[in-house]
Amino acid sequence: MKKIGFLSFGHWTPSTHSQARSAADVLLQSIDLAVAAEELGADGAYFRVHHFARQLSSPFPLLAAIGARTSRIEIGTGVIDMRYENPMYMAEDAGAADLIAGGRLQLGVSRGSPEQVIDGWRYFGYSPADGESDADMGRRHTEVLLEVLKGEGFARPNPRPMFANPPGLLRVEPHSEGLRDRIWWGAGSDSTARWAAELGMNLMSSTLKEDESGEPFHVQQRKQIEVFRSAWKEAGHDREPRVSVSRSIMPIVTDVDAMYFGGDGDSRDQVGNIDATTRAVFGRTYAAEPDVLVEQLREDEAIAAADTLVLTVPNQLGVDYNAHLLEGIIKHVAPDLGWR
What we know:
By secondary structure, this protein is an alpha/beta fold. Helix content is about 35%, strand content about 20%. The chain has one domain: Luciferase-like domain (TIM Barrel), CATH 3.20.20. The protein has an eight-stranded parallel β-barrel with strand order 1-2-3-4-5-6-8-12, surrounded by seven helices. A three-stranded antiparallel β-sheet has the order 7-10-9, covered by helices on one side. The protein starts with a strand and ends in an 8-residue tail after the last helix. One of its GO terms (cellular component) is cytosol.
């Protein structure tokens, strides 16, 4: 069995060709798609976070709303850029959203990716400390978040508080028990996968990775998962970690599917630079009739190694069409691969 969810980047544009023409559209449609995915039997609804862009940016109101409208599906992010985050305030928001959802939050976080503006985190009030890079700052924010989510008191109480305090040092509230074990790190390299394992975070590996060996993307990703699991075992954590990979998989079962994605059937891995110093390999798009997809996906070593598959969806095509894509995978592809 494999958990199957969707990942939406939450794009919106005023174009007449888009079903999501405003921020309100994409927020409300995201809720509706999560509800539809739960009804179809999907296991997760994940959302990408980007700042200064016509995309989803502030995840916790959305996650809380989805939590109130659903009862079973996991709800999460893929990923939150920790360079922009106040980890104390984030712990409050995450705790509240997780309590509303009944403990279903699965938060993917990372050091971030190239953004819409130069050093956008500076506008949010954050700067690397002396000797730090912005990536170091993102990891430092993450370590603070993980510590706070343990739920241990650390703040000295006021001797004359407005309201009575429990004894001892105080913690950030609301605290949601178990959320600390449901933080995922979006790792772009083997070294950050190892770091995530050492800190006890689950692994979220996306459709791009630093090109560290020149091998096919899915092979490099499978090796990254092996590095992660080995480091987890060495760290001696007392629970089993989870691992997700994301893919673009488009089953072609109607003429409309063929119109949108018929030209992607010959997709291959691509290599490019995501910044001045980082060469990355980007995973292919899978687009074909279900029987062909089954055979292609059998060869994907990283999907086989992961327990969770997150499917990127073209959210601007609307709720009904994206629900149709999810249904195609859950009903026509997953059973033949033993995922259901």
